[in-house]
Automatic annotation (TrEMBL):
<dbReference type="GO" id="GO:0007161">
    <property type="term" value="P:calcium-independent cell-matrix adhesion"/>
</dbReference>
<feature type="domain" description="VWFA">
    <location>
        <begin position="300"/>
        <end position="476"/>
    </location>
</feature>
<dbReference type="InterPro" id="IPR002035">
    <property type="entry name" value="VWF_A"/>
</dbReference>
<dbReference type="GO" id="GO:0005615">
    <property type="term" value="C:extracellular space"/>
</dbReference>
<feature type="domain" description="EGF-like">
    <location>
        <begin position="672"/>
        <end position="707"/>
    </location>
</feature>
<dbReference type="Pfam" id="PF00008">
    <property type="entry name" value="EGF"/>
</dbReference>
<keyword id="KW-0964">Secreted</keyword>
<feature type="domain" description="VWFA">
    <location>
        <begin position="9"/>
        <end position="180"/>
    </location>
</feature>
<feature type="domain" description="EGF-like">
    <location>
        <begin position="253"/>
        <end position="290"/>
    </location>
</feature>
<dbReference type="Pfam" id="PF00092">
    <property type="entry name" value="VWA"/>
</dbReference>
<keyword id="KW-0677">Repeat</keyword>
<keyword id="KW-1015">Disulfide bond</keyword>
<dbReference type="InterPro" id="IPR000742">
    <property type="entry name" value="EGF"/>
</dbReference>
<keyword id="KW-0732">Signal</keyword>
<feature type="region of interest" description="Disordered">
    <location>
        <begin position="717"/>
        <end position="747"/>
    </location>
</feature>
<comment type="subunit">
    <text>Forms monomers and multimers.</text>
</comment>
<dbReference type="InterPro" id="IPR050525">
    <property type="entry name" value="ECM_Assembly_Org"/>
</dbReference>
Amino acid sequence: VMQCSASLDVLFLLDGSYSIGKGSFERSKHFADKLCDALDIRPDRVRVGMVQFSSTPHLEFPLDWYLTKQEVKDRIRRIAFRGGSTETGRALKYVLRKGFPGGRNSSVPEVLIIISDGKSQGSTGMPAMQVKERHITVFAVGIKFPRWEELHVLASEPTDRHVFFAGDADDAANGLYSTLTSSVCSATASGCKVESHPCERRTLETVKELAGNYVCWKGSQQPNTVRASLCPFYRWKRVLIKHPSRCFRTVCPEPCDSQPCQNGGTCVPEGLDRYHCLCPVGYGGDIHCAPKLSLECGVDLLFLLDSLAGVTLEGFLRYKAFLKRFLQAAMGRDSPMNVGVAQYDNDVRVAIAVGQHKDAFSFMKSIDALNFGGGGTLTGRALRYIAQHGFRSTPVFADVQDDLPRVVVLLTDSKSQDPVAEAAKYARDRDLLLIGVGSSFVRAELAEVTGNPKQTIIYSDPQDLFNRIPELQRRICSVDSPEGCQAQSLDLTFAVDASAGVGLENFLRVRDFVRSSHLHFTINRDVTQIALVVYSSKPHTVFALDTHTSNSAFLQAIDHVPFLGDSASAGSALLHIYSDVMTVQKGARPGVNKVVVVLTNGGGMEGAAAPAQQLRDNGILVFVVVIGDAQRDMLLKVAGSPNYLVHISSYEDLEYYRDLIIERICEEAKSPVNLCKPNPCMNQGICVLGPGSYRCECHGWEGPHCENRVLRGDSPRSAVLPPRSRVQHGSGGWQHFSRASWHTKRH
């Protein structure tokens, strides 16, 4: 942002002598590179040249050779160290004699920047004075451990604005900009100001110090006589000397100075006047991290908090922090929900009645007052008690019929010492929706409590608990929402393991699972298209995306899915899907989300990670459902993320996970898409995005998707297609159809 923009000639004098050394010479080049960032290098603004000096001066490049900043910086990086004695005076005389090589002959201001350790082997005072008498502004920059007295002689007045230290490259570049702004550059940016600040000048000096005394023999006036005496012993020592000084810099107000991010958000500046906020989970309703999880659904919500000894005090405090974070994000002033908190150990008590608080602040004060308990883990007893007494304290209960759905969120990390299945069924039979939140240690028990795996939320570590707040909000508000994604456009491919390792009986269970999924989709050319691939050692397409255009046709086709036997190769199946299923030729629609669901027992996954990544790179989600024991690390590489990996203990339990899997697929159907992923252009055509459309650039081919070879004498053409457009082959050749014509009968 801060650049000196003026008509200006700048010449660097770079010390390349042996006293500097090759290492410090490279630091000098780096510093010169940094200073270029503070200069607006263009032909009509700032021009830059460079002379390296040691025993003799050597012109590295004149001012008129490189006229862009990048060219200058690239040339500086290629300069080689020359070595020699430090003849700074001779270098100044070179400037007096030659002027600024390639410069504009004093028609614009001239600036000389000397980068040296200030240890010249000749006189510099007279030539330095003569250079300044020619109205050349001189900056002296110390490198390594410089001799500051000489640098002050070289620099223009006032020296505190013209002498810098290369070790503090950013401050020195800022100081150069600040000084130039006050004389030749354009004014500082609005709101910026130059300020003075204390700084240090360091150098190494050799000092003489007394090391002690030793016995020595001295002559005497008497002949043939010597006498013993004590003689002082000195030694030379190099000492780091620090000189306090004043430096100048330009300070600009940052957009984050006003702390615009709320609710614990982190402000990240972007230049002088822009910023963005990194918001905690549950916030981000606007750019300043306003709550975004405000529950629009009307529910009576009761948190059942485990305060047993097995949880530990640290875990209990974490649960309280989780509740406060959730309430801050979800409980707005006009929120239609009523919230309460119960806790259990040896006893069960409703600590905060449902609906007692209508604002988050007073609610959080009550949460702070909750105490940690201890004793036995009786989750079953707690569930039965809550089913009978948990919602009786709702204020409207006395005189108004409360018909809001009732939700209980169980927060626990302890296995129960009493049976939970019967008590949980008792609660569910009284129209309570049970949601379980816990670690993988209690996963099985939470599934038993909720009666549905999709109503369990498992966190991997303590911090991950807070990351589950959005998922909890969705679970709470799903109590009355319809299942599936009938209205979402989606291209969906099931890849089913039909190898001998799965077995015929389990394969039929997977087939029934795929069949039952049709209830959640509207299958036609406009909404959801489904393809089915079965695989063992080789893949086989049962039907393509555009084969069936109704739910009934899909059901009829499922009954004819073959069991293949043989060994499994998921990698070849994914490659087949990439090249021969999820393509425009086989019915894939540009502008529509695409998902591949792999149903496997985990066998034959060795070569599947690379093709899965290839699918993801082309905008196709890979969702892995593994049944039985399998190597999680390998499966995770195929899925790409734990969010897209579902592990089921047995094929008998597969049906219970249907809702969870369909919900994840439907979430993906709502995400934004890239019209060029996967590439809709055939025959190596290049997809070019436009505003709400794309076009194919063809080479040797023509047509909307480069589907027709160009005959001799023809010229290739490209067509611009709107999102979700379709190409259909009729009797007259390839044609372009809009979405409205998808129902046209295919020839």
